[in-house]
Amino acid sequence: MKWVGFGAYTDYVHGFLIISQIEAVNTIIRRSSDGKTVGYNTNCDACITAIEDAIQGRMITYAIMIVMLALLQ
């Protein structure tokens, strides 16, 4: 059986042209509005889009950002 990645298990792939070039979907989210699954590649810009899509329509009063810094010595 050939590995097809997670993209094969989604109803929709966000940024399909970009993802088809890198051939990777690493996050699947089920939309509460219609129950369909959306595949994302959460590296870089797609990570922000996935978070925005997940919180769309909700009022956010504050946000906490955790930044991890690695110091190279």
From TrEMBL:
It comes from the Eukaryota. This is 3-dehydroquinate dehydratase type I. It comes from Artemisia annua (Sweet wormwood).
